[in-house]
Amino acid sequence: MPGPHSENTDVAPPIADIQTLIDQYQAPIWRYLRVLGCDEVLADDLTQDTFVALLRRPMEYLSGAATSAYLRRVAYHLLIDYRRRNKRVVLTPELEHSDQLWVRWVGGDCDHEIFEYLNSCFERLSIRAQRSLRMRFAENASREAIAEDLGISPNGAKNLMQRAKNQLKECVETRLNARTN
Question: Residue 181 and residue 66: Cα distance in Å, rounded?
């Protein structure tokens, strides 16, 4: 393996600046752990442990996609270890499925593009649909509060949000499919 003073220019030197890695990959790793079913506190802890593991066992930088994949694997195994230590059921096929969905949606390098797609698709929703989703997910409002704010029944609010989420999903998937084709 080439050392830091190697003449091979195809491979960057080992990563020395952990802060740059944290700045670039902390949020995507945290979101990845949330997709795998971690609550916010556990995702915080395991994200931190992921970077501690990197400090203990540095990796050689190959590319952004390789770094992202490496950090995801570390976080994935930390989650499995955590669940085993705490005698929680580990459904590895379920975790693997979530991991595959993450890679399909986000890709290998970073998750910024998916949020650009999501924001663009969100802007295409009706004002009422946008308001309902903001209230539910940003303000943590109840269905009843959303219904009252929009002047509709609680079931109407539920249906509105379901339709809006389906529209977002279809729009983002269309963009992702266009990206891969």
Answer: 22
> Nearest to residue 52, comparing CAs of 44, 60, 61, 62?
44
Instruction: Return the structure tokens found at 25.
Output: 């990959």
What sections of 36-62 are H helices per DSSP? 40-56
Q: Report how far apart, in Å, the C-alpha atoms of 21 and of each of 25, 96, 108, 162 are.
A: 6, 25, 15, 37
DSSP secondary-structure letter at 173?
A: H
Contact indicator for 87, 7 with CB cutoff of 8 Å: no
pTM over the 0.70 mark? no
Between the two ends of the chain, the Cα-to-Cα distance in Å is 35
Structure tokens, 127: 């004002």
| pLDDT tens sequence for the chain (181 residues) | 333 443 433 344 344 477 888 888 888 888 888 877 788 899 999 999 999 988 888 776 667 777 888 888 899 889 988 888 887 655 555 556 555 555 555 555 545 666 777 788 889 999 999 999 888 877 888 999 999 999 999 999 999 999 998 898 888 888 877 876 6
Token look-up 């004002």 returns 127
